Amino acid sequence: MKRAMVLLAVLVMLLGVCDLSDLPFRPEDPNAPCWFQWATRSLPDDAQAVHEALAAAGIGAREVSASGFGEVCVTSRGTVKGLGGNQRGLA
Predict the structure, then answer these.
(1) Which of 53, 61, 84, 91 is least surrounded by CB atoms within 10 angstroms?
(2) How far is CA 88 from CA 71, 80, 85, in A?
(3) Residue 49 in contact with residue 56, Cβ under 8 Å?
C-alpha cells in the first residue's frame, strides 16, 4: 500500500509539471477571454495612401509614415488578436 501511494504521489508530481497548453490537440478558443495591453503598430498601407494623396495634390513628400496606438487583445497563449478592437490580426 505504501508503494502504491508513493507511485501515485510521483505520478501526480510529474503531471503537475507538464504544460499541456501548447499541444496540438488543444486549439485556441477564438472566444477565449484576453487581456489588453498598450501597443503601437506601423501602418504602411495608410502611409502609402497619404503619400499618393500628397503627390496627387502636387505636394512633394520625401517620406511619409503612419502608426497606430491603442490596445491589443492578447490571449493566454500570447496570440495578438488585434489593435483597438480590430480583430483582423496584426503582423
Answers:
(1) 91
(2) 14, 10, 9
(3) no
